[in-house]
Write a structure and sequence with these properties.
By secondary structure, the chain is mainly alpha-helical. The protein has one domain. It is built from eight helices and three strands. α6 crosses α8.
Length: 229
């Protein structure tokens, strides 16, 4: 019997388990980050609530040709990959423990195990959430809408799901798949609120101007008979 075969099998198992575990750990971190973002957006809602603003959102691309896949469909329901991301987050602790045990086991029986462990961490970061969520084909197959612009992506999620019970879940799934969204999400929503506020103020100023002009014309017309007499 070839004695190297069990070692190769153990190495393959440890690589797969540890890679998914590391992705799970990264994904679990996104829960806290998403919660912080949602809290920030809630604060923005409160800040602008006096203006009664409903954010306009750009229409998404129908299909998966856009760079950013939405975690919801046309009806606002979570996609299959978004649900999977949430399941991975929920199972993070068990997965993290299993991955740690597998990596330690590999290091104890495989020559160069320490190097292998470092490779596993690197591999986990390289594959990222895409691999953990089933790969690019599954992501596209289970998506219905997308965006090319990350700012429009964020504003759409907030405008369409901000009052939904699934809002936080959608943001968690989105950040798990697109880590760069964490840095821009709340800023994109804040910028959209700022723009909407300025447009609302401009419309109000124009309406006030029209009203003032109409009142002036009315007063002028009312004063005309008196002037003639």
């Amino acid at each position: 019997m070839n004695s190297s075969r069990p070692l190769r099998l153990l190495a393959a198992f440890a690589l797969a388990t540890a890679s998914v575990s590391l992705v799970r750990a990264d994904t679990a971190d996104s829960v806290a980050r998403a919660a912080a973002i949602v809290q920030r957006v809630v604060e923005l809602n409160q800040q602008y609530s006096a203006y009664d603003i409903e954010l306009p959102a750009a229409a998404p691309i129908a299909g998966v040709t856009g760079k950013y896949l939405l975690p919801v469909d046309q009806n606002g329901a979570l996609t299959e990959w978004a649900q999977k991301a949430l399941q991975i987050q929920a199972g993070n602790i068990a997965g993290e423990q299993a991955g740690s045990a597998a990596a330690k086991g590999l290091g104890s029986v495989v020559p160069g195990g320490g190097l292998a462990s470092g490779f596993l961490k690197k591999k986990g970061k390289e594959t990222g959430a895409v691999a953990a969520l089933g790969g690019p084909e599954f992501l596209k197959k289970s998506s219905r809408l997308s965006f090319d612009n990350v700012e429009a992506y964020a504003v759409y999620l907030h405008a369409k799901l901000g009052k939904s019970a699934d809002y936080s879940k959608a943001v968690q799934a989105a950040i798990a798949l697109y880590p760069d969204l964490e840095k821009s999400y709340s800023a994109s929503v804040a910028a959209a609120y700022e723009t909407a506020t300025k447009e609302l103020a401009a419309k109000k100023a124009e309406a006030d101007k029209v009203k003032a002009t109409a009142e002036a014309e009315k007063a002028k017309a009312a004063a005309a008979p008196s002037a003639k007499s």
